[in-house]
Specification:
The chain is mainly alpha-helical. It has one domain. Helix content is 81%, strand content 0%. It is built from nine helices and no strands. Helix 3 crosses helix 4, helix 3 runs antiparallel to helix 8 and helix 8 runs antiparallel to helix 9. It starts with a helix and ends with a helix. 14% of the residues are buried.
């Protein structure tokens, strides 16, 4: 807020009026953290279903495959994460003879991602129908992993556009700072007068609108 007040108004008096921008900044940061956590959960879930499929292929029962995949996932993610916490809770509840399908449904409700819901739906359908659960899980795990790999490749291709958008978002403020430092006389008419403050307010609004528009253009749901 202090930098914005100096750049656009050359006055600390503008700081209180720019405080609402803090809410926007915190919202963007919170959304960014949420997406990073979601991406980490998706990646851990992908690794887990592949480990679960491998354990089932090795001849483990579903219950033992859950335990084995949990131990192997711990080695892959020693810092922990929501997937490991959920599996630890499932294994503890399994000791009390709680059904795997019930625990997975609760997990899908807590983390309503499309991949998790799809896997849980297929798992429960196979469990209730009495079909070949091992075969269904292996097939479903392979398909979901392939879909997630494709999505990750697309996100990697879009990341360069997102980086360009960040650079372009900084450029207007950087140009204004350059003019303030190198050629301050060109901006004298925009400060400490009502018409200049009005012009800079309009510029600030356009700048924020362009930033939000550019962010939404590169923030594509896959």
């Amino acid at each position: 807020m202090l930098v914005g007040a100096i750049l656009f108004y050359d006055s600390l008096v503008a700081v209180p009026f720019l405080c609402p921008l803090l809410w926007l900044w915190h919202r963007e940061r919170r959304e960014g953290r949420r997406k990073k956590e979601q991406a980490r959960l998706c990646w851990m879930f992908r690794e887990w279903i592949l480990l679960l499929s491998a354990s089932l292929s090795a001849g483990y029962s579903v219950e033992n495959a859950f335990r084995q995949s949990y131990r192997e996932l711990q080695l892959m993610f020693p810092k922990g994460g929501p997937m490991l916490n959920a599996l630890k809770d499932m294994l503890a509840r399994a000791e009390n003879n709680q059904g795997a399908e019930v625990m997975l449904k609760e997990f899908a409700a807590a983390y309503p991602l499309p991949e998790i819901r799809s896997f849980v739906d297929v798992f429960c359908a196979a469990k209730y129908s009495g079909g070949s659960l091992n075969l269904v899980i292996r097939s479903t795990a392979a398909q979901i992993a392939q879909i997630m790999d494709t999505r990750r490749e697309i996100e990697t291709m879009l990341s360069s556009r997102a980086y360009e958008q960040k650079i372009m978002s900084v450029m207007p403020a950087a140009i204004l700072l350059y003019l303030r430092v190198g050629s301050a006389e060109f901006l004298e008419g925009l400060y400490h007068c009502l018409p200049g403050a009005a012009v800079m307010t309009v510029c600030l609004i356009i700048y924020l609108a362009a930033y939000l528009l550019g962010k939404r253009l590169v923030d594509i749901e896959i």
